[in-house]
Amino acid sequence: MSNKIWLMEGLSSQRDIIQGMKSFAGKMRTDITVYASHRNERNEILSVADFSLAEPKDAEMRLPFILSTVAEWDINAIHTGRNCLWFENHRKEIEESGVSLTTGASGPQWLEMADDKVTFAQVMEENHLPAVPSLRINSIEELQHSLSHSPFEGQQLCVKPVTGIYGMGFWRFDDNASSMDVFNYPEKRIVHPGQYIEALAGTPAFTPLVLMPYLPGPEYSVDILADKGEVLAAVARRKEGALQHLENSGEAFELACACARAMKVDGLVNVQTRNNNSGRPVLLETNMRPSGGIGYTQHSGVNLPGLFAFHKLGLMSKTEVIEMAKNDFVPATVRSVTDVIGYSTHLTNRLN
Ligand SMILES: Nc1ncnc2c1ncn2[C@@H]1O[C@H](COP(=O)(O)OP(=O)(O)OP(=O)(O)O)[C@@H](O)[C@H]1O
Ligand SMILES: [Mg+2]
Question: N or C: which end of the chain has fewer CB within 10 A?
Fold first, then answer.
């Protein structure tokens, strides 16, 4: 075994994942080789890998690129955090080359389910896992009706698109909001319902929305390492203002792990919960990919990317991963800060 893992294009945390893997390998005194690739010139990510590659921009070229790269460099494991549905649909051809593939899911149907927040909530409730009460809204008329006949009596209402990321389109309705609030305090995400309806009416196409009761929180973001539905390691981040508290027990943590099992997640994924009016956690969504904040979890002593790589490369058994995650965990509090890093304008590790 040559211990070669390839991280294909992912979302924001690809750099932290590579660095996590390399530092874990250092701690374990076992060498692993990390390949990283991206469609764009993201040298801050590519430069921290042992070797880097430029991905083809054209999806048609992706399969031949993967197969020739695996063959040429003798890669053992591929991880992707983007285009996951495409990867699931090409799993057979990719794995036939002898490489293992991690997409976060164990089948395309799970990615589609996680992508639709109303279906997700419904499937979770069917599995007896509490999720945020979610009503699908397909038109302005339906929204107007639900605002005047609330399905969630006595609770403040909020909306977000049925599919979406980066928190885009999440708004809380407040009858007392001034119409200038959205301009002066956009970060509060509070809008007068009349103003929202008016804005919708001026838009040609209606994007399906989820209508929900507003949950007071706190919110938990739980980073999970799983093997085909078996949770091996997890770290919860309880978000309180600017601080995040790292935990590995409690009701929200257990709910997130149960959700990961029910969804047969595979690899590094992120489950989010929020406490409702009764102080009980309910599921908000599952991102079938590493979260942007996965790097923060290392402050708990548990290196999820490192454990993932070592498990995938056959350097650690499931039991060893489970034991290490349990024994190494220490509670910690973290705060994210903005920072700058030196940017290498020329890559010295480039293979193509
Ligand atoms: N019902 C709710 N009550 C209170 N806050 C909510 C509710 N639904 C969503 N939010 C807030 O909006 C944020 C974004 O929601 P959600 O995670 O479902 O969408 P997203 O676009 O996939 O976000 P991201 O990709 O950033 O995780 C949540 O992290 C949470 O803070
Ligand atoms: Mg989210």
Answer: N
Residue whose Cα lies nearest atom 29 of ligand 1: it is 167
pLDDT digits (tens, 9 = 90+) for 146-156: 999 999 999 99
Tell me the pLDDT tens digit for each residue of 66-87. Answer: 999 999 999 999 999 999 999 9
Our answer on whether the CB atom of 291 is closer than 6 Å to any ligand 1 atom is no
The domain at 134-213 falls in which architecture? 2-Layer Sandwich (3.30)
- In which residue ranges of the chain is CATH 3.40.50.20 found? 4-103
Residues 6 or more apart in contact with residue 168 via CB below 8 angstroms: 161
The helix/strand count (H/E) of the chain reads as 13, 16
Q: Which of 155, 160, 209 to mutate to test the pocket of ligand 1 (most atoms within 8 A of CB)?
A: 160
Residues 6+ apart with CB under 8 A from 347: 43, 46, 47, 52
CB atoms within 10 A of CB 327: 9
Q: Which residue's entry shows tokens 């945390």?
A: 13
pLDDT score for 95: 98
Supply the CATH classification number for the domain 110-115+216-335: 3.30.470.20
Q: Which residue has its alpha carbon closest to ligand 1 atom 16?
A: 167
Answer yes or no: is the C-beta of 73 below 6 A from any ligand 1 atom: no
Q: Which residue, by CA, sits nearest to atom 8 of ligand 1?
A: 284
pLDDT of 12 > 90? The answer is no
Q: What CATH fold (topology level) applies to the domain 4-103?
A: Rossmann fold (3.40.50)
